[in-house]
Each structure stands twice: as structure tokens, then as C-alpha cells.
Amino acid sequence: MRSSFTIFLLGLVLGSTMGIGGIWTQVVKPAYEQINNLQQEHGVMKGALAEAGETLREVAEELRSESPDSDEGSAPTPIPTGSIFPRNGGSGVVPSGVSPTTRESTQPSDSSTRSKPRALASRLESLASKLDEVQKAEK
């Protein structure tokens, strides 16, 4: 009876040890490694969010600085009459055609076209502020 009790006790100890070892190798260790990987990816994503916010702000600033503030300087100045072909002869070639009486431009000069870079810049800044809110909420 004593030997069977000892064998039973030995089996119980070894079985529980192996069971704990099996749980450790099959459940705990892989879960720990996966959590570490997720934390590393989380750190990378936080850095990417911060970088994206900074880049959006820089692009918005650049768009605002490149957009014209007024009509001055947006259209080329006309060439004075007689500067290319003199009026009093010089060559037999005389320009013909109708001279424009109003300002004609190859690009539309309405305010919606001029405000597009500014509107885009404000959209980019709002996206950057949303990214900042996400980062603050995470902390």
C-alpha cells in the first residue's frame, strides 16, 4: 500500500509539473511574445501618427505661403505696343488681329480657384488636429 501511495504521489507531482510546463509553453509564453510584439507595433504606430501630424501641418503651411493673397503679381504685365515691332517700319511684318480689351488669362481667375490651396490647407490642419486628439486620448 505504501509503494502504491508513493507511486501515486510521484505521478501526481510529475503530472502537475508537466501540466504546468505544458501550459507555460503552449499558452503563457506565446501570449507573452504576442503582447510584446503588439506593444512594439503600437510604439511604431504612435511615432507614425506624430510624424503624419507634423507633415500635414508643414504641407498646410506651404500651401498657404504659395497661394496668392491678391490679384497683384498673379497675371503677367502686358508688352507695350511697338516694343517688338516698331510702328514706323523696320520690317515688313506687321502684327494683325484684334488686341484684347479685357484681361484674358489662361487660368481662371475666380476666387474659388484661388481659395483651393487655402481650403486644402485648412482641411490638412483639421486632420492634423484630429491626429493630435487621438494621441492625447490614448495617453
Strand and helix map with partners:
Layout: H1 2-66, H2 111-138
Helix pairs in contact: 1-2
Brief summary of the model shown:
By secondary structure, this protein is mainly α.
Q: Give the fraction of residues assigned to helices.
A: 55-70%
Distance between the termini: 63 Å
Binned strand content: under 5%
Main sheet, how many strands, which sense, barrel?
Answer: none
Tell me the Rg in angstroms: 38 Å
Overall mean confidence score, pLDDT: 76
Count all strands and give the number.
Answer: 0
> What pattern of helices and strands is seen along the backbone?
HH
Number of helices: 2
Overall shape: it is: rod-shaped
Q: Which regions have little confidence, pLDDT < 50, spanning 5+ residues?
A: none
Class per helix and strand makeup: mainly alpha
Q: What does this molecule look like?
A:
The protein has helices at 2-66, 111-138. It has 139 residues and is an all-alpha fold. The model has no long low-confidence stretch (mean pLDDT 76).
List keywords for this structure.
139 residues; mainly alpha; 67% helix; single chain
